[in-house]
Amino acid sequence: MYKYFLSLALLTSFCSGYTQTTEVDPLAKQYAQTITQEELREHLQIIASDDMEGRETGTAGQKKAAAYISGYFAGLNLPPVVGDTSYFQTYPITENKWEEPYIEVDGQRFTFLEDFYSFFRLADPIDTSFQQITFAGYGISSEKYDDYAEVDVTGEAVMILAGEPQDKEGNYYVTDSSEPSRFTKSLMASLGTKRTLAGIEDAALVIVVDDDFKKHLNRYSMAARRPILKLQNKFAQPSLVIISPKMAKALSGKNDLDKLQQRIDKKGKSSSFTNKVSLKVDLQQDVEHITSENVLGYVEGSDLKDELIVVTAHYDHIGKQGEFINNGADDDGSGTVTVLEVAEAFVEAKEAGNGPRRSILFMTVSGEEKGLFGSKYYTEYPIFPLEKTIANLNIDMVGRIDPYHAEDSNYVYIIGSDRLSAELHQVNEEANQTYTQLNLDYRYNAEDDPNRFYYRSDHYNFAKNNIPVVFYFNGTHADYHRPSDTIEKISFPLLQKRAQLVFHTAWKLANRDERIMVDKIEKGEGSKENGEE
Length: 533
Hints:
The protein is α/β, with parallel strands linked by helices. It has two domains: 307 residues, Aminopeptidase; 184 residues, Glucose Oxidase, domain 1 (3-Layer(bba) Sandwich). The strands form three sheets. A nine-stranded mixed sheet has the order 8-1-11-15-12-16-19-17-18, sandwiched between helices. Strand 13 and strand 14 form a beta hairpin. Helix 2 packs across helix 9. The longest helix has 23 residues. The chain is elongated.
């Protein structure tokens, strides 16, 4: 992540102050007008209908939505590009349900959701035994502090502490400041990172000691209990469980974890031990293999057709809550129908002989709510080379007004536009200044945004590959992830205007003489785990 915000001081106020104007392109203006409120509404009445049953990934409702989108692309005469025969990029996922997990320490049985829990189920279920436990501090490996520098955990069960070490003044050793690192800010994200680090060290099992075990168990017990959809990943990771202090004491033997933690915090240097113990771990799961789909529509460019712009939105949502259907009109029905309408505008331009110079991939993805599955799969198995992909424009929730803008709704949040390419930021600003005149609000683009929105939608999987991104967003509201996120609450005039901004930015990117430059490198943290919100 970088600390450069252009010379325009864009973030000194939340709304853009960029005033450069460009000449109006009459063709761009003409085809933007094909994006209408009426057609956006027609699409959304179908995408957000009860018939789609909340579009949860892997369900019949999600597949109905995929069929509607692919049928629309076919009706636009877009060519199928997945194996030259399909609009679907199908990817494998698993639905994992716990059977009756338990852990025994020297014959003492500890109970799931009482003494330990886990919401990480990427690795194969395990039913195995260990003859010792290795303690490795906080399980952190960083430039300034490393728990694995002098300990070997290959094939071992490794026990670590939650959080990160601090000195007596409250400064963190990892950041060398009073600001916590990614190992503290979010429990799920930090444990996911620690799990990855343990996997790099070839650990077989990660056991996390949590001083706030009861509080976190109450918070995450539903997530730990329910079936979890996971993208089948080619990179195996160790299983991870979070345990109570009582269970930690049984595993530690004569070693005093409190004193060890105090020593680490005082000296800023890791401390480890190995304890001989009979550890029986049964984390068996019932695993069902299913599939989901990204839906791809492709408009081929002319003289620069080998270069590609990807326009994305996720069409999945969170399904049902009992008898209540989460229709997801805003999240992300609004983004989905924007993609459809922008695609139609480019098709009309091409049919009239005014098609884009660069190619454009219009991709609606699934699995976003489960952990950015669809975009992750596409960037790992791209249909078009990532090195030829010049930008990703991602639309996720653009049909509503959040509380910050109740008095002036002529806005859209812009996230990520300047993080990898100053030119992309400028293109989006110029498109807005020339055509749509929305207030571009950058409050969530701040590096220290506690909401971490930059990491929480599908653009991030492109950004991780150093592809410049713009994330268009209206902010959250009281109906976020609730059955009350329905179509009658959508502002279609505002949705139209935001969709037209996406179109104009894509049009400029597609028709420039030179591709935008990447002048920064992504050094971010990673995306949500298990659909973390």
